[in-house]
Amino acid sequence: MLTTEEQNFNATIDRGMKILDDLIAQMQKDGKTELDGESCFKLSDTYGFPIDLTREILEEKGMTCDEEGFAECYAKQRETAKNAHAATKYMGADETVFHKIDKDFHTEFIGYDKLEGDSEISFITTDDELIENAKAGDEVYIVSSQTPFYAESGGQVGDIGTIVTESGKCRVVDTQKVVAGKFAHKAVVEEGEIAVGQKAHFTVDRKTRYAVMRNHSCAHLLQAALRKVLGEHVHQAGQLVDAHRLRFDFSHFNAMTAEEKLKVEALVNKYILEALDIKMEEMPIAEAQKLGAMALFGEKYGETVRVVTMGDGDETASIEFCGGTHLDNTSRIGLFKIISESSVASGVRRIEAVTGRGVLELVEERAATIQQAAESLKLANPLDIVKRCHTMMQEVKDLEKERDALQAEITNLKTKSLFDNPYEVNGVKVVTAMLTNTRPDMLRKMGDELKAREADAVAVVAGVDGEKANLVVVCGKNAVAKGAHAGKIAGKVAALTGGKGGGRPDSAMAGIGDRFKIDEALDKVNEIVGEFVK
Ligand SMILES: [Zn+2]
């Protein structure tokens, strides 16, 4: 019996192997021999597949991994982990500068239905101390009693925007919840200076917030669609919504089929095109539960909760507990497109998708790729690409067949001429040759022909194939009877080049070590054959 730990390890290895196999297949299709650093890193970091194993498997296939890219990803991740640690520190895990603020001081969020508002600058802090004012160039945290800035929560990123006072202007790069209901605006003073006690105008970056809301509202529709298509066992297991994409993790055991993905995509887009109204309400938790609102598994809720409803009556698409910010109508999402579906852990799948502008960018990018492909193929009409690809593949197959036939003919001619001037060792004919552009399979075939042609001969032929070289040794029936042994001869000749190999008495293959030592090794063949044929 395997321990649970061993089983988990085996499952990790199996999953990693499968992912790597897919990557290798794709590389072979693309004619690549180096796996990009990001994929190597993802295999090791996300999937726990040892990097040494990745290297080994790639090597077996004559491939390598982008070591530099891998190192870069690794360094970047360490930096992120360090920052995340710093963030949790200021988010209240340890004593932080925000603990110096009165614990009864709260920030009221006023940004559900407006993107700007006035408030007073109550506190300004650096990373570790409260300060009274800040000037251009300073990086500070600003805490106010009210704000329209959403602080990162429930997978929705914190807002960015500006805070302006009569004497200065700040650019807010992030908003986080810190200890005891306080919001900290991470900001850079860009002009003038700001001071505690000043009145300030808070403006959320509208473009970014709308992009985030498109992704967040759409994540609700996605969960509803997944439950319809895959079943009621689907629950949110985590999410991240920012201005560029939505990432939704959910409970489900199998990879989604192409058909399921299409169905989910179509259903979400149907909800969007139906232009369903989005309602956000606060209500007692019991009432929300009665409505059948989806809650987050394992999440603790207060007495009153916010409930987000999309559509109404029979047309209700989704009801969820959610404290995030949302659009007022699903049509504002624009369009929805899944980018990828993958596994994050056992029983947890991840969908990455785009909406609105993100879909537009995707469509433009794909259209450009199609256009480029059409131009490379010299097609006036991009829609002919598929047809042209089929004919080209057929042409490649025909050409390969033709090439193989020609090569076979050349091999045949070369083997014929080999016996023009044989050397004799104790009554056995010995021939040697080195051929360029000869693959191992051609070499083997040549050996078979030589063996059949001359019963009294030993033939040793080296074939160079790009950077590599191989050796075939064959001994005719009579030569074997006189003591010749192809396997042993191959081993000895190959050893002279630092290579190795062996085989049967009548036929053997060996790998050449240093291909610049082939001539030298072939010169010794007569001597070596002499050791066996007495
Ligand atoms: Zn939500």
Describe this structure in words.
The structure is a single chain. With 534 residues, this protein is an alpha+beta fold. The chain has 14 helices and 25 strands. It has helices at residues 4-30, 37-45, 51-60, 67-93, 206-230, 258-273, 285-290, 356-376, 385-418, 440-453, 477-481, 486-495, 518-523, 525-532, and strands at residues 34-35, 64-65, 108-109, 116-125, 130-131, 133-135, 139-144, 146-147, 161-164, 168-178, 182-195, 199-204, 236-241, 246-251, 278-284, 304-310, 318-321, 336-345, 348-355, 423-425, 428-435, 457-465, 468-475, 501-503, 507-511. The strands form six sheets. It has a six-stranded antiparallel beta barrel with strand order 4-7-11-10-9-12. It has a six-stranded mixed beta sheet with strand order 20-21-22-23-25-24. Strands 13-14-19-18 form a four-stranded antiparallel beta sheet. A hairpin with a 2-residue loop joins β18 and β19 (348-355). α2 (37-45) crosses α4, α5 crosses α6 (258-273) and α9 packs parallel to α10 (440-453). Residues 88-92 have low confidence and may be disordered. Zinc ion (ZN) is lined by residues 154, 216, 220, 320, 322, 324.
Spell out the key features of this protein.
534 residues; alpha+beta; six-stranded antiparallel beta barrel; six-stranded mixed β-sheet; 14 helices; 25 strands; 41% helix; elongated; binds zinc ion
Concise summary:
This protein is an alpha+beta fold and 534 residues long. The protein has 14 helices and 25 strands.
Q: Pairing-aware structural class of the strands and helices?
A: alpha+beta
Rough outline: elongated
Our estimate of the beta-strand percent is 25-35%
Helix content: 40-55%
The main β sheet shows up as: 6 strands, antiparallel, barrel
Cα-atom radius of gyration: 35 Å
Q: How many E strands?
A: 25
Distance between the termini: 59 Å
Which ligands appear in the coordinates? zinc ion
Number of helices: 14
Mean pLDDT: 89
How are the strands ordered across the major sheet? 4-7-11-10-9-12
Low-confidence stretches: 88-92
